[in-house]
Design goal:
The complex is a heterotrimer of chains A (about 325), B (about 575) and C (about 290). Chain A contains 15 helices and seven strands. In chain B, helix 2 packs across helix 3, helix 3 crosses helix 11 and helix 13 packs antiparallel against helix 14. Chain B is α/β, with parallel strands linked by helices and about 575 residues long. The longest helix of chain B has 25 residues. In chain B, strand 18 and strand 19 form a beta hairpin. Chain B is built from 16 helices and 19 strands. In chain B, about 35% of the residues lie in helices and about 15% in strands. The N and C termini of chain B lie far apart (about 60 Å). In chain C, helix 1 runs parallel beside helix 11 and helix 3 packs across helix 4. In chain C, strands 2-1-3-4 form a four-stranded parallel β-sheet. In chain C, strands 6-5-7-8 form a four-stranded parallel β-sheet, with helices on both faces. The chains are: A alpha+beta (about 325), B alpha/beta (about 575), C alpha/beta (about 290). The interface between A and C is large, with 61 and 62 residues.
Chain lengths: ~325, ~575, ~290
């Protein structure tokens, strides 16, 4: 099958270093991965095509790149799954990190953020003589996160990082979760305290890009949500993020559905009157258009809200 | 201006052996840096799937059993003093890893659980699902971050440097990202740069396994040992050669021929699929050669293990089978064949990782150490047991690191002139200056890989090996002339691949030479023209020294036997 | 075809024009709706930050109510759809978990057997109502209108829970419907990205930057209008667009329509009955383009 690869090239040593696209056509087999094709291009068509690759088996995390707009591992992506009827395959370097050359990105910033979460076990108390005792379930659960190979795909496609370079990002948060959830680690409350700061666990926008692109099903965002839940449970100081969550839950418990203005007021809190005020023009426009939602005592609960309240209670009584 | 860095201990390679060595050296108080051509977590240690062996006495196991099975697995070529250390110290290293944070699989009582692995009667393989290597590597890297050890990532080592007394004094390397060449002075250098799998094609090994450390040490004057001993793993995917872990058979998977028979009954009636790897690979190859294969493969059948177990304990190979062979292991057997997997040989070291002999029985390079797959103690002899390689990296990585740290503290920094940097720059300049020809680095590499696979495979003979030797010599000539087109300074992977091929050709040459020299069949080295093990003449290691401008020099060392006299090897 | 209609909180709160426009268009498509009045909010992924199981209990309750009625659920919000799809997926793939949740529901005399399907209006259009009926309902083709789709995360990810494997056409459902209505679909890279809504409290500049970026990017790709099946995206893209424009120091003025509003225009309905006067970014330019008074 003849397949066209449109590859974003960038050579910092050229006279005018600008990224550009270059097309390569080659015959591919059914079993070929995009990595196989890229290596063949490099070996038979253009030796200068630059990429990182090593294991070919989705375990080393070297060949993270964007293929048809989404970050993935080239070694895990079948050509036939993307170009069964001769479609052009777009190959670009990962996003949210500087490009060094062609498909090679600078991951120094990625690792800096990993280091930021102190990614090593911090046990409490003296080491036992034998192994730490830990339940098989807890350990099996952790192997899911430990499956992370640090390829950078989640960071590449993270929407929150795109607008906030200080966000620690999904990979680092998944790594942090791996320690918070480790029964052997003694620092989970100080870890959560750190993650509660700006740039931490509340800065995720819950877009699920990281879940979708992860080649190892680490589910970074799900881990971030569990970090938030654990943080709330352990009583980390309130932030806009945690107040939003708490208020949301409280409103649903009592009204069955969302009282939006009340949610906004309770999220910002009295300490943020200025910020609330900045939304006034929007509120006024909504008022003029007759769509300012009712709130507070004027906001009627759904019928049968008592049942919803009981469900909340029973969820809290979980065994 | 010449850049140079200075450390007590410099570790080349950042896989398990390298990182473990770096941590151990750091603990001695020495200044330590790691230099590696890829980021540490990209290292090939990742690919070790099944587990890590240890005989823990509190679990009713005996280190002597583990040691004996390792010796038997090695076909009595393993040096028994080294094997004893490995088996005795395994437990403490497993616990150390657990304390560092490795998420080992647990029993119901919350203690570390084990699975069975080949060549061993007891279940003594500790594991993390089926990505044990990755789990260990990431945890060791966590410890490196915690210790804030400098890691020079994406630097390619060009050569070892020595002072006027022949003492190792560091390396010259170039930074892949910028192309700049720098001198790394060190009182001790630890070669932990892994294996050389890509000398063969196909291979289970990652593309980065190009024997750089082995070749650099060899050119620097250290002898290579057991280079004829190449492990062919019984369960690799045909084509690209990706590995399917022995864990599958450890958990109970069968090997079937085209007639649906569990053919291992014929070859290893007691251990069946869990006989040692050389035995299983040979059995498979015989089945295939005698027409009971399927497209050059036999079948690995996991179906009876059940979906739950496969997904929990064999999750990675389940995924791998799905992604790379389009097979659901819970529903279909998967075709597998023997494939090049591991190098038992490597840079000769003693049990402290030293690449020189305190007693002077063999020559080497003072100040040079080696550990992991790049090294040869010899621990694995003619055949390595599954789950002994991870153990090798942590036990002997730790020992090499500690010894190098202590050693470095006793010495002043060796005097090395800056001219070595010029030499390094010249190596690159000369490659850039070669006139264009039709030949390419890739073509030479493919020919080397095919030659090695054809002639130094599961079955070998004089004629084939001699042909390989001759072909390699021709490819070396071609390498000397082959030009690369990309002459850029920034991230020039064409240059890296050319230099890697240079290393691989040196390795290939010594492998063919070692194999031709050993006129017997032992372990993985099976000659159809010398069918039997010959303990009378060949209970010894073959050492190969580099001679600049001349052909390599051969030497030998007797196998060190402590308590296990060679016996007939039956599984 | 009859559905248990799950309008979601926002269509009866900040985006009443969505509720209003759905009520206008559905009778013309030959479907029948029975509004679920006792179902709670899905939790919108927010409640799930605090307690995932609690969220699943609430959604299992909703799913059980529809199951009792023997009706599939129709949503008109990407977030409602995604959150319920995910809950349904978890319950369907983990029988032990379903049992656990059912023990809680049992005290209300309810059991969820895992049979309810939940579909967003845009999927129903394509999968249940069908191309032919949609075409028949079009009285004023949107010829010449250049419309950019904006899905909302929950209608795109995680694809496994959304049934993309079984129904791959869902990934492009919005474009398909827009094209059927005669509009020219403007493709742009942001169509499946985050609108910024969940960030508005914690990182307002970032949230506004997303709004500014996506709307102006769509405009630069030639869009006259942006269409979304998600009222939460609408709150940000429409409600905060002027704030975002100010933040980013640029003019945007890109009208943001709810999908049923666009559909209603193609059906020839009066703009006002579709609540187009209630969108915060003026929709006048769209009406002019379509020659609607």
């Amino acid at each position: 099958m003849l397949t066209t690869f449109r590859i974003r090239r960038f050579n910092p040593e050229s006279e005018s270093p600008q990224p550009y696209f270059e097309d390569y056509q080659l015959v591919t087999e059914r079993s070929d991965t995009v990595l196989d094709a890229l290596i063949r291009i490099r070996e038979t068509m253009d030796e200068s095509l630059t990429l990182r690759c090593s294991c070919r088996g989705a375990i080393c995390g070297s060949c993270g790149m964007r293929i048809n707009g989404h970050a993935t591992l080239a070694c895990k992506t079948k050509v036939a799954s993307l170009a069964s009827s001769g479609e052009t395959i777009h190959v670009e370097p990962m996003n949210n990190m500087p490009v060094i050359k062609d498909l090679v990105t600078d991951m120094a910033g990625f690792w800096e953020k990993i280091r930021q979460v102190q990614p090593w076990l911090q046990p409490s108390g003296p080491e036992p003589e034998g192994e730490y005792l830990a339940s098989p379930d807890a350990m099996n659960h952790l192997t899911g996160v430990m499956g992370c190979i640090m390829c950078g795909a989640c960071v590449s496609d993270c929407a929150a990082l795109e607008v906030n370079a200080d966000f620690v990002g999904p990979a680092a948060l998944a790594k942090a979760y791996r320690f918070v959830a480790d029964p052997r680690d003694g620092s989970s409350s100080s870890r959560l305290g750190e993650l509660n700061n700006p740039g931490g666990m509340w800065d995720c926008t819950r877009c699920m890009e990281c879940i979708e692109v992860c080649p190892k099903e680490v589910g970074a965002m799900d881990r971030i949500m569990t970090l938030r839940a654990t943080g709330i449970e352990q009583g980390v100081p309130s932030t806009c993020g945690s107040r939003h969550t708490e208020a949301f839950a409280d409103i649903i418990e009592h009204k069955g559905r969302l009282d939006e203005p009340m949610l906004a007021v309770r999220t910002f809190g009295l300490g943020n009157l200025g910020r609330m005020f900045s939304f006034l023009p929007m509120v006024l426009r909504a008022l003029v258009r007759g769509k300012l939602p009712k709130s507070g005592p004027l906001f009627r609960p759904i019928s049968g809200v008592d049942r919803i309240r009981r469900l909340f209670q029973r969820a809290k009584e979980r065994p | 201006m010449v850049t140079s860095y200075e450390y007590d201990v410099l570790v080349m390679g950042a896989g398990l052996a390298g990182l473990r060595a770096a941590l151990a050296a750091h603990e001695t108080g020495a200044t330590v840096a790691v230099i590696t051509k890829v980021h540490p977590v990209r290292s090939h240690s990742n690919a070790a799937q099944g587990g890590i062996n240890a005989a823990l006495t509190d679990r009713g196991d005996k280190w002597e059993e583990h040691a004996f099975e390792t010796v038997k697995g090695s076909d009595y070529l393993g040096d028994q003093d080294a094997v004893e250390i490995l088996a005795q110290e395994a437990g403490q290293d497993i616990l150390a890893l657990e304390h560092m944070g490795v998420i080992f699989n647990r029993n119901e009582d919350g203690r570390l659980g084990t699975r069975r692995f080949g060549g061993q009667k007891r279940a003594r393989t500790f594991f993390v699902s089926d990505f044990t290597g990755q789990a260990l590597l990431h945890v060791l890297y966590e410890q490196i971050m915690k210790a804030r050890l400098p890691v020079f990532e994406e630097w390619f080592v060009l050569s070892l440097v020595k002072d006027e007394h022949g003492q190792c004094g560091g390396v010259v390397a170039f930074e892949i990202r910028t192309g700049r060449v720098a001198l790394f002075k060190a009182k001790a250098v630890i070669i932990a740069a892994g294996g050389l799998g890509r000398v063969f094609e196909p291979s289970t090994n990652a593309l980065i396994c190009t024997g750089d450390g082995i070749a650099i040490a060899y050119r620097g004057g250290a002898p290579l040992m057991d280079m004829e001993m190449v492990q062919y793993h019984p369960t690799t995917l045909r084509g690209k050669g990706l590995l399917l872990s022995e864990a599958a058979r450890g958990e109970g998977a069968y090997l079937l021929n085209s007639e649906g028979e569990r053919f291992m009954e014929q070859y290893a009636p007691n251990m069946m699929e869990l006989a040692s790897r050389d035995v299983v690979s040979r059995a498979e190859q015989i089945e295939i050669n005698e027409g009971r294969g399927i497209n050059g493969c036999v079948l690995l059948d996991c179906r009876h293990l059940g979906k739950g177990l496969i997904q929990e304990r064999l999750s990675q190979i389940f995924e791998e089978a799905k992604s790379f062979a389009n097979i659901d292991l819970t529903e279909e057997p998967i075709p597998v064949c023997p494939g090049m997997h591991y190098m038992m040989g490597g840079v000769k070291t003693d049990v402290e990782g030293r690449c020189w002999d305190l007693a002077g029985r063999w020559r080497g390079v003072p100040g040079l150490f080696a550990a992991g797959e790049a090294a040869c103690l010899s621990l694995h002899g003619g055949n390595r047991l599954g789950a002994n390689s991870l153990l090798d990296t942590v036990v002997f990585g730790r020992r090499a690191g500690r010894c190098a740290g202590e050693y470095a503290k006793t010495l002043p920094q060796p005097r090395i002139g800056d001219d070595v940097v010029k030499d390094g720059e010249n190596v690159i300049r000369m490659i850039f200056a070669r006139p264009e020809t039709d030949d390419t680095v890739a073509r030479i590499r493919h020919e080397m890989g095919r030659t090695m696979t054809q002639n130094l495979g599961v079955f070998r003979d004089q004629e084939g090996m001699a042909l390989a030797q001759q072909t390699i010599a021709g490819l070396r000539e071609r390498w000397n002339r082959v030009a690369i087109h990309d002459k850029g300074q920034v991230f020039n992977t064409s240059l890296v691949r050319a230099l890697e091929l240079d290393c691989m050709l040196d390795c290939a040459e010594t492998m063919a030479l070692g194999a031709l020299t050993r006129t017997e069949s032992r372990g993985a080295h099976f000659r159809t023209d010398c069918l039997h093990r010959d303990d009378e003449h060949w209970l010894k290691h073959i050492l190969i020294y580099h001679r600049p401008g001349g052909s390599p020099q051969l030497d030998s060392l007797p196998v060190r036997i402590t308590q296990w006299e060679p016996q007939v090897r039956v599984y | 075809m009859k559905y248990a209609f799950f309008p979601g909180c926002v269509s009866r709160g900040g985006c009443p024009e969505l509720y209003q426009s759905v009520k206008q268009v559905y009778p013309r498509l030959g479907i029948d709706l029975e509004e679920m009045t006792t179902a709670s909010c899905t939790g919108a992924g927010v409640l799930q930050e605090k307690d995932l199981r609690l969220g699943d209990i609430l959604n299992a309750h909703t799913l059980a109510l529809a199951e009792q009625q023997g009706l599939p659920i129709m949503t008109i919000c990407s977030t409602c759809q995604g959150v319920m799809s995910q809950a349904n997926h978890r319950l369907a793939t983990d029988p032990g978990y379903l049992d656990d949740i059912n023990r809680v529901l049992a005290e209300e005399g309810l059991t969820y057997h895992g049979t309810t399907t939940v579909k967003h209006f845009v999927w129903i259009l394509l999968e249940d109502i069908g191309e032919q009926k949609i075409r028949q309902s079009v009285k004023r083709p949107l010829t010449g209108l250049r419309a950019a789709p904006f899905y909302g995360c929950y209608l795109q990810r995680p694809s496994a829970a959304l049934g993309f494997d079984e129904q791959p056409a869902r990934a492009q459902s919005l474009e398909t419907v827009m094209a059927l209505l005669g509009a020219e679909v403007v493709d742009f890279p942001g169509k499946t990205r985050c609108c910024g809504m969940p960030l508005i409290t914690i990182n307002e500049p970032g949230s506004l930057q997303m709004v500014a970026h996506h709307t102006s990017d769509a405009k630069e790709h030639g869009a006259d209008v942006m269409v979304t099946p998600c009222p939460l995206c609408h709150l940000n893209l429409d409600g905060l667009q002027s704030k975002a424009a100010k933040h980013d120091r640029r003019e945007i003025d890109l009208p943001i329509l709810h999908l049923p509003q666009l559909l209603g225009l193609a059906m020839g309905l009066e703009p006002k009955t579709l609540g187009l006067n209630r969108n915060l970014v003026s929709t006048k330019s769209v009406l002019e383009k379509l020659d609607v008074a």
